[in-house]
């Protein structure tokens, strides 16, 4: 099969699967009110389950994805479990390539059953808030001109124009890390963007009790628990030993003054307390 034919076939299969998912969801809403209420509560609380939850029913895995917390590495590994090999970092975040399913795609009844299954593994990974903000800035804002046309710049400009005109803006300017901290701290709990949203909020999805919260700082040792649950072989374990898609920046402490660190601590205090990261630099 040629590359073009293969692509066309994959697109047809993807859209056919989406159509089946819509039909299954409609049926679940009619015949399983408990599952429909379970899902609706997640949406009502602003949790965006289809954006932030990946499921592998075969392995009884539910992954709550917190951006900037090794999510590309984790999705690559889970995609391998699903029998897929995305060709790029971008593709691993696209379900049609990764093979990872959303709650919507497996159906509301199946999702609720998996979320409550005692034999399932529900997990997430977290990161030191200081380090996570440096990664978010380096990946989404560093050296970008502050003009419309980029999703992240657009969000920033909308906030700047309506809330804080003193922040920089315009084609001749970029957003410094200090400026980003000011912006992120002001929107940390507003669900403006998950890349700098408070991790504590994202971890609290109603009805979903996480069995395990790993840390980026001890990734290999912590992710071994996921691989053990899935019964992954040595080849897959070796494949994820190298970290993928790291942001290009200096060690996070190099970006902070005491004043900036204090600003981050005040905005993300619940993260520091719940996840037991030390405050200060």
Helices and strands in order, then pairings?
Blueprint: H1 3-31, H2 33-44, H3 49-52, E1 53-56, E2 61-64, H4 71-81, H5 89-92, H6 95-98, H7 103-106, H8 108-116, E3 121-126, H9 129-140, H10 151-163, H11 177-187, H12 199-203, E4 212-215, H13 219-230, H14 234-239, H15 258-267, H16 269-275
Parallel strand pairs: 2-3, 3-4
Antiparallel strand pairs: 1-2
In short:
The protein is α/β, with parallel strands linked by helices. Helix content is 54%, strand content 6%.
The general outline is globular
Distance between the termini: 56 Å
Major β-sheet, in short? 4 strands, mixed
Unreliable stretches (pLDDT < 50, length at least 5) are none
Helix proportion range: 40-55%
Predict the CATH topology. Answer: Rossmann fold
Number of strands: 4
The arrangement of helices and strands along the chain is HHHEEHHHHHEHHHHEHHHH
Shape-level CATH architecture: 3-Layer(aba) Sandwich
User: What portion of the residues fall into strands of 2 or more residues?
Assistant: 5-15%
| Average residue-wise pLDDT | 88
Helix/sheet category: alpha/beta
Radius of gyration: 20 Å
Task: Indicate the CATH class.
Answer: Alpha Beta
Number of helices: 16
Number of domains: 1
Order of strands in the sheet with most strands: 1-2-3-4
